[in-house]
Design brief:
Two copies of one chain form a homodimer.
Chain A (H helix, E strand, L loop, with lengths): L1 E5 L4 H18 L3 H6 L7 E9 L5 E12 L9 E5 L26 E2 L4 E2 L4 E5 L37 H14 L7 E5 L1 H12 L6 E5 L7 H16 L15 H14 L3 H10 L7 H5 L6 H14 L4 H12 L9 H6 L4 E5 L10 H16 L6 E3 L10 H4 L5 H9 L3
Parallel strand pairs in A: 4-7, 4-8, 5-6, 8-9, 9-10, 10-11
Antiparallel strand pairs in A: 1-2, 2-3, 3-7
Helix pairs in contact in A: 3-4, 5-6, 5-10, 6-9
Amino acid sequence: MKQIEYMNFRVMWLLRCSIAFVICLLLSSFTNLVYAESPLLTQKQRHVIDTFTTYNGATLKQVQVGWESYGQLNADKSNVILITHYFTGNSHAAGKYHPDNTNTGYWDSIIGPGKAIDTNQYFVISVDSLANLSVYDPNVITTGPATINPDTGMAYGLTFPVVTMRDFVNVQKSVLESLGIQQLHAVVGASMGSMQAIEWASAYPKWVNNIISIIGSVHSDAWTTTALEQWAIPIKLDPLWQQGNYTKDSRPMAGLTASLMFITQIALHPEYINQVGAELSHFALEDKPLNNILSDHAITAWLHDRAASRAAMMDPNHLLYLVRACQLFLTGHGQSLTEGLMNIDANVLFIPANNDLLLMPYHARDAYTQLRKLNAEKSSSHRIQYATLNGPLGHLNGILGINQHAQTISQFLARKD
Amino acid sequence: MKQIEYMNFRVMWLLRCSIAFVICLLLSSFTNLVYAESPLLTQKQRHVIDTFTTYNGATLKQVQVGWESYGQLNADKSNVILITHYFTGNSHAAGKYHPDNTNTGYWDSIIGPGKAIDTNQYFVISVDSLANLSVYDPNVITTGPATINPDTGMAYGLTFPVVTMRDFVNVQKSVLESLGIQQLHAVVGASMGSMQAIEWASAYPKWVNNIISIIGSVHSDAWTTTALEQWAIPIKLDPLWQQGNYTKDSRPMAGLTASLMFITQIALHPEYINQVGAELSHFALEDKPLNNILSDHAITAWLHDRAASRAAMMDPNHLLYLVRACQLFLTGHGQSLTEGLMNIDANVLFIPANNDLLLMPYHARDAYTQLRKLNAEKSSSHRIQYATLNGPLGHLNGILGINQHAQTISQFLARKD
């Protein structure tokens, strides 16, 4: 049994949001121009699954996740595009919760009325992952190690089962089914989101017509598995971690902050960090680190402070579970990658970043080559396409530089073959 | 006042070494062929500096370092090549201590009789760095945080002053001067060793005729400074670190092991780690990490075990000091890189690895371009050359794959202009 509830906090704020949204909709019936100039508004909704069985066979009661949508579901529910989010992200993919918000969802440059993923045409939906990193973000609803286990009244901690991309997909499927949806025009995801997109197409091929894998991977190869481990290690070393048994107020924040420093660094590229360094005068010897082994260089302090401020809304155990979900990723969750890719019956567009240091472009290139070969073998007419992102941001070109492929994306989504 | 002493431990073993060495030398007087077939033998020697002033102005008493050499110093002491070692290395650059040793020095493929750095022609010498990582390797002699401070009778810990590449160079200069040497045909170093090579040429331009910078850098840019910080962080997070106050038996080994895992990963390349992964069947879902958040993937365990075994001979505080020395690196230690490079009055050969992820090839390429420009401006006739290493090992191609440029190196060293 599943049920959908509106978030019951910030009621007045949501009311204002809703009024603004309705006004927007009314105006938009006269002209699309108004749509383009007004902010796209959305609201977080809550989906509850009474009993959820994880891929590894564990049972979770009262799984709750947040979701949000942009655009209108059409009559035959055939215009759905699912957006699957990245490691540090959540379902806030586009728009604002309130016209006064400073920030928009992460892919606002390509999702909205008249944009690459056109909300005048598509019903775009996104769902918070299980074990979402930003547990303490009031706009995130998730279930993970920090959640109270209804059986014990205590946080799950490490008793929470290991979850996989298939579990994320199954939670999304439950949200979609609760809306009567049974097919997806497309699944579009960046990074960890790309893993969910490809897993959707492999696990539920009849559902999925198109996949867009941005800065993505179809499996965590050995290199990626050990690289991801680097994000888990500082948390486990922090004496406050206590094998996962900590409270919100005694979280291992030093370990979590270190982990976020590592994530930010590898998700960027020297070109960008060196631009920041130049602003901090990182071209002369610095006195403090020269004279005190415990003093940081200015660029290290910059990276640390950025990570520490982001860590405030996050949970360290959740990070460990997301690392594991990524490490375990293998399209189809079977005995081989070929087996998983063979199941796919969709058009696929790969968009890696040329200077990505986290999921290097060989991931997309190899998957592209392998999928084309498999399609040829089974005489499939599906399109397998490839395009490359440029820019100084490395992996993050897939989030912040995605607009350079707005046309590639809109054309891929529009083709009927 | 300086003095040289023979290591006073393992006396019998050294005696056997020395006898073997003498026999080798005698044989070599008849034919070079015998040299090429017999192992190159060497022995660690000890150099003591009674009072050493660090670059940042601190005073250290009784600084001791190890050094070793290969080949013979000629009459006018003009045939000296100094080898400066990398982060996890020491002065054992070539040869064996005893014919029965399984391993040779790290660059044995290019240092030896008839090899690229020909010990029939050159007197090749290398010196253990200050704060050398492998304090508990019986073949390393170093002074650093783990050393007993003669003033207190306690280990220095974090009271040891921050040291820089200039300090490493000054210690080497002291060793050379104790042998009556006042000029260097070449300084050749990989990675952190390349920093010392270029620092030599900038700080003491009259000494240095040729520089070979392998997988190197002429400064720690902002990216490199934060990347290096990743190696320090796990040690500082380990509860056993205690702000550097620990004993040999209570070292923060978990943090040190994590740091070495990070170093190994970034010093390699996906191509190699994925080869190892294939041997470990890293292409199917693994049951243990799927079912237990605390279980590692086989590839993670491989990387961990490799690091843990190396950590046994190392000191965590020393690692922090080496990280800092690298982070602070700026050729010439002045106010700008241009100022430091301008001082150089030597031929320079850069040999980066094409797929280096630690000191990416842009380091060598940019330095090459800048040095050529500066040389043109001052009408210098010095040669500035560039060659690239290939292979699956990333940064480590500079150590394990160096032999592919044996001829480039020997020709560079042989030219008289």
